[in-house]
Amino acid sequence: MRAEGAAAHGIGKDFRKYWQIYAFLLLPVIYLAIFAYVPMGGVLIAFKKYNPNDGILGSPWVGFNYFKKFFSSYQFERVITNTLRVSIYSLLASFPLPILFALVLNTLRDGWFKKTVQTVTYMPHFISMVVLVGMVIRFFNPVNGLYAKIYALLGFAGQPPDLLASPAAFIHMYVWSGVWQNFGWDSIIYLAALTAVSTELHEAAQIDGATRLRRMIHVDFPAILPTVTIMLILRFGQIMGVGFEKVYLMQNSLNLRTSEVISTYVYKVGIGAEAGARTDYSYATAIGLFNSAINLVLVAGVNKLTSKYGETSLW
């Protein structure tokens, strides 16, 4: 009890001394409370037959009926498969590239070339998703897009295949447009980690005859490995969380077979966006809750593995 009292006294003294710094936390805490924690009470409607007139508490309980409905739906296998395909493909394509880019960029001497490369690769991150998808649609237009022009310059006759309407091409356009937009920005955290690498290690390696490539592999990469591990754990927590906006903007009736993912399906079910469909808040919430539960299990599982077999973990 005496130790707990001393700890509480120490926290109170620290707060009084640095209250201005703690005050900066007030707005983020309020934001999280309003937009992240208060809405959690709404997940109750996943277990109820929600009626807006009766409210959340007044609506009757139905247990796991909506979860069973989703598991038995013909859409279940499709949206789960599409979500996993897009997520895993994105992870394999987009996760290693920022690491490699940061390692290579770190070997360059500071100067106009390095700064120019950094600026050029960071800029696409600030393009809005609507503009990005508009660029993709314009580029791959089979009639007058750059894709059509290149197709004609290569000597092919006729009109090129419409990739925007191709179910097979959707995943490639989605993933690689995302890689182009974000790999430069994602490399910032690894470049920041590389600044902490001691120059003495590089000097010692050079004295031993290590080339620049050897130093990159045996000095730089081990130094950023804890950061890589943390980022990988966080990415695994988003495996089932494919973003809604970009998929929905690239979606059309012809590529729907491979582009329908959990987030777009929840949106359509939740507001009745499909032709002839009714709004079903409870069903949409049940699907979203199932998705969040899977992400939580993945984060916990990967974190457990990294803590068991490595030295880095989230907790």
Q: What is the topology?
A:
Elements: H1 2-17, H2 19-23, H3 26-37, H4 55-58, H5 65-71, H6 74-94, H7 96-107, H8 112-122, H9 129-139, H10 146-153, H11 167-186, H12 188-194, H13 199-207, H14 212-236, H15 244-250, H16 256-259, H17 262-271, H18 281-309
Helix pairs in contact: 5-18, 6-11, 7-11, 7-12, 7-14, 8-11, 9-15, 12-14, 14-18, 15-17, 17-18
Describe it for me?
The chain is mainly α and about 325 residues long. The chain has one domain: MetI-like (MetI-like fold). The protein has 18 helices and no strands. Helix 17 (about 260-270) packs antiparallel against helix 18 (about 280-310). The model has no long low-confidence stretch (mean pLDDT about 85).
Descriptive tags:
single chain, 315 residues, mainly alpha, MetI-like fold, 18 helices, 0% strand
In short:
With 315 residues, the chain is mainly α. It contains 18 helices and no strands.
Can you tell me the CATH architecture?
Orthogonal Bundle
SS summary, helix count: 18
SS class: mainly alpha
Shape: globular
Do you know the CATH topology? Answer: MetI-like fold
Report how far the terminal alpha carbons are from each other: 27 Å
Mean pLDDT: 87
Strand content: under 5%
Q: What is the ordering of alpha helices and beta strands? A: HHHHHHHHHHHHHHHHHH
Name of the CATH class: Mainly Alpha
Uncertain ranges: none
